[in-house]
Amino acid sequence: MSLFSAAKRAYPGQTADQVIPPRPAQRAGTTSVTNETALRHSAVWACLRLRANLVSTMPVDIYRRVGGIQVEVPKPPVLVTPGGPGVRMIEWLYSSQMDLDRAGNCFGLITAVDGFGLPARIELVPLCDVTVRVRKGVLKYLIAGKEYDPSEVWHEKQYTLPGMPVGLSPVAYAALSIGEYLSIQEFALDWFGNGSVPAAHLKNTGRTITPEFADETKRRFKASIANNDLFVTGSDWEYNPIQAEAAGAEWIEAKRFGIGDVARFFDTPGDLIDAMVSGSSVTYANISQRNLQFLIMNLGPAVVRREDALTSLTPQPRFVKLNTDALLRMDPQTRAATVKTQIDSRVLAPSEARELDDRAPFTESQLAEFDRLFGNKNAAPSFGGAAPSGVMT
Predict the structure, then answer these.
(1) Tens digit of pLDDT for each residue in 132-172?
(2) Fewer CB within 10 A of the end CB, N or C, for the chain?
């Protein structure tokens, strides 16, 4: 994104390259690291996929407060099919979260507005098509070669700095770590694909051979291998495959280390993408505890930012909440104990607990069955007329 004017205005006396994170198109190692090539890194893909999967599958609810109570209200179309009839909320959230987590920014064109003047349709655009410019204090967006006013563009950002109109790109700052991994990957492909060294060494230990004899021997050897046939020699030939020695090279360990390094850039614990560092271990009492730690320390801030951005699509005083209960699913035993504690402490009614499990309230026949099995310990009160003294109604 072109931000040279913004840099001069926000940071006088400094050059643009001192304050603007480098655009992720630099070369690191022997590969060019961009938002697209970074996805070839397994850890980058895993981190982005995990975060986008979780955020996009959280139910989007809209509320307003009535008499101090949070009341759910119907969702406007922009929170159901934000990209139009063919793009539902789950796809839109996934795509935009991918861009936010890898580039720090997400852009879309506002192609329709509602009766309140708020966006009714936001069509996401590729990052590579967007340039952000600040000239004489005026912010403009250039998308696919066409200039747009900020009122026509949906711009969501994270990882921000004061005075910067765009968010910082994790891919740009992790370019060295990503480039190292991709370079090692490319080297391995060249090595095992015979691009760097010969595939093997066929040596005659008995005598010195002429180039013509060497070519003839090589031709016969390759023909035998190609036909899955036997190659017959005397006692004066030694065959040493070269690639097998590369398996113990130190670059394999460097590649393994790079996975955990990249996971830190993308704010994702290594164990959640199967990239635990050798010699370390993290133990949790149950899966709920692990998910809670991930939500609070890693994903929670991104969820709050997204809620704030989506709230701007609704008329005041309504607000948007992403339901994180899906992430905090408990094992059956822990869940049952938690619900029982809430019912016993009068925080949760049995009917509400059943609703959490998508079950209808108890019927009279079910209640009668409980009475027969366990006795009528808590019969429903029947006062007839006025309530007895000391009983609230």
Answers:
(1) 998 888 999 999 999 999 999 999 999 999 988 999 999 98
(2) C
Q: How far apart are CA 217 and CA 234, in angstroms?
A: 12
Highest mean pLDDT among 120-129, 191-200, 244-253: 120-129
Residues 273 and 237 in one domain: no
CA angle, residues 312, 48, 253, in degrees to nearest 5: 155
Helix ranges (DSSP H) in 242-363: 251-265, 287-294, 300-311, 332-344, 350-356
Looking at the structure, tell me whether residues 43 and 124 fall in a common domain: yes
357-369 burial: b if 16+ Cβ within 10 Å, else e: eeeeeeeeeeeee
Residue 314 lies in a domain: no
Rounded to the nearest angstrom, the gap between the alpha carbon of residue 246 and the centroid of all alpha carbons in its chain is 34
For 20, the enclosing helix (H) or strand (E) is: none
Domain enclosing residue 232, as ranges: 200-241
Dihedral of alpha carbons 157, 160, 166, 168, sign: negative
